[in-house]
Structures are given as structure tokens and as C-alpha cells.
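User: My instructor asked us to take a sequence, write out its structure as C-alpha cells, and then describe one feature of it. I'm not sure where to start. Here is the sequence I was given:
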Amino acid sequence: VQLQAFGGGLVQAGGSLRLSCVASGRFSCINNMAWYRQAPGKQRELVALITGGGTTNYADSAKGRFTISRDNAKNTVYLQMNSLKPEDTGVYYCNVRAPSAYWGQGTQVTVSS
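Assistant: Let's start with the prediction itself. The C-alpha cells for your sequence are:
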């Protein structure tokens, strides 16, 4: 299973970005799909998760600003990020369970103040 993430970049505070992550390869089914963030000098942390049934879970820092969604026909997970803050800066990694856990290569998000 390969995961390829798109959509990172440089944005000013208050702006928006949409991340996408496409899963390809051989797998029977994809269960949970998630986005993690690793800020400089910090551990990787969960930002948002969506189950196979569509239930979502967000880190407190993401609630009300970020929306995770998935398109099962395209094996793709999205993260819509609005009202971005400088503290959202980091490398964003997608993660899927199919059923083993797989990680994407990461996409850099930089929010300037």
C-alpha cells in the first residue's frame, strides 16, 4: 500500500488549505483514515481521524476549524483546514489502516503570522 499526500504549502494566518491523501496498491479494505502533524521539535500527534463508518474525531486544537472527510471510491482522505494559525505549522502525515497501518510521506504546512 502506498500513500501519496498533496496540498501542503505556505499560507498566511487565517487562510485555508486542503490536504489530500490517495491510497494505492493491494488491500482488501481501508478502515480508519487519519491525519497526523509533527511540528518542529515535537512528537507526531493526531489531528483528525475518520472511521470506515464515517465517524470523526479531532484534536482539541482542530475542532471547529478542520474537517476530515473521505471518498471511499477514490481511496482518498481529505483534510480541510480553515482559520489556520502559526501553531498549525508542521509536516502533515496521512495514516490508514488497511488493516495494517501505513504512512504517507508527509506534506509541509507552514502558516506565517
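For the description part of your assignment, you could build on this observation: Residues 28 and 88 are 33 Å apart (CA to CA). Try explaining in your own words what that tells you about the chain.
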